[in-house]
Amino acid sequence: MNELKNIKTYKVYSIFNNLLILGPIITLFYLEKGLNFTEIFMLASIASITTMLFEVPTGAIGDKFSRKLSLVIGCILCGLSLFIFILAPNFYVMALGEIVFSIGLTFRSGTESAILYDSLKNNNEVKQYTSIEGQARSYTFIAQAIGSLAAGVLFTYNIYYPFAVSIVFMFIAALIATQFVEPHIEFKNSSQNYKIQIVESFKYVFGHKKVLSIIVFSVVFSYFYRIGFNYFQPYMKEVGIPTIYFGPIFFLFNVVAAFTSRHAQKFLNMTKPRSLMSLCMLLVLSFLLMSVVRIQIGFILILLQQVVRGLRSPVFQKYMNKHIPSEKRATILSIQNLLNALVIALFAPLAGYILDKTNIYLTHFIVGIAMLILVLLANVFMSRSIDRQGKVG
């Protein structure tokens, strides 16, 4: 079958796969369940530990057996986890929900990008990757924008309604995933090489400084991007924005993310060869500005993070995919996600503890300065990698 069929399937799949309409209300949901911010970030830590344990093995399953099956399993597990959240009576059952959801994510992460990239590569169309990825993310964000409006309304009627709707979307995504055509990979043979696949992929990452330097940027970026999301709602409540407006505000967030995602290639062209640095600095700027702006209109500063959100996947996936071989693609992308998860697992509770002990403004300042320092160090590491092995990107 024609692998280019996967382009259309990927765009439709991306919409439903990412259509969890929980963004505007998830922190409020946790607080309704009686959690404090330290516990909320502990859930993020638990999710990351789970990701660490399952990320690479599930990525290797995608490379060695079936990427399509991996996506189907991932969507089903994510849907089931939302049932657990609805039924959860306490923190510990919610932690179980996070574990199931995270296992589902590991089956999907990296595998989605690998299917699209290798489908294009096998047909000599790889130059279209960033454009297609950007379009897919754009459609996703538009759908999420509409979902954000619905989430706020549904939450006011019943805090579980947004979860119920999201479950339906997850199972639709699973059905769409069955329509992918498995890309032809030369190395795909028996399962006897499963352990070798993982070991060789790790060797490749740590033996190629360009790939490792991109992952270092990814680790720094992903941690602060992840904790920044959990600060949105506390910030908006602190500056006095009524909860009823959260849905429309998140609608705006998604529209901005959709627009910037669609123009990801332009961003790459304008910022090359410092695209990763530029992306990280936008996030730093948002944190620092939010530490001093204490009025309702300050929510527009979160739009900087939505620009970052729209560009994140096309930019990082473009950098990574260019420098890794097809037969190790899903596994190496999973290694990237594993290292991201390791840092979140170790330090996410600290982000919650700081917020519990200080306030949202000082928290943003501390986080902004910390990210700035780490981004500069990551840039030094990348510069040395370029000097040794040539141009990155």
Overall shape: it is globular
The CATH topology turns out to be Growth Hormone, Chain: A
Helical content (DSSP H or I, runs of 4+):
over 70%
- Major β-sheet annotation: none
Q: Provide a count of the helices.
A: 16
CATH homolog superfamily: MFS general substrate transporter like domains
Provide the β-strand percentage band. under 5%
Reading off the top of the CATH hierarchy, the class is best stated as Mainly Alpha
The SSE string, one letter per element, is HHHHHHHHHHHHHHHH
Q: Into how many domains do the coordinates divide?
A: 1
- Poorly predicted segments: 188-192
**N-C termini distance:** 32 Å
List keywords for this structure.
Growth Hormone, Chain: A, mainly alpha, 393 residues
Question: Can you walk through the features of this model?
Answer:
By secondary structure, the protein is mainly alpha-helical. The chain has 16 helices and no strands. Helix 4 (67-87) runs antiparallel to helix 8 (161-177). It has one domain: Growth Hormone, Chain: A, CATH 1.20.1250.20.
In short:
This protein has helices spanning about 5-15, 25-30, 35-65, 65-85, 90-110, 110-120, 130-155, 160-175, 195-205, 210-240, 245-260, 265-270, 275-290, 300-320, 330-355, 360-390. The protein has about 400 residues and is mostly helical.
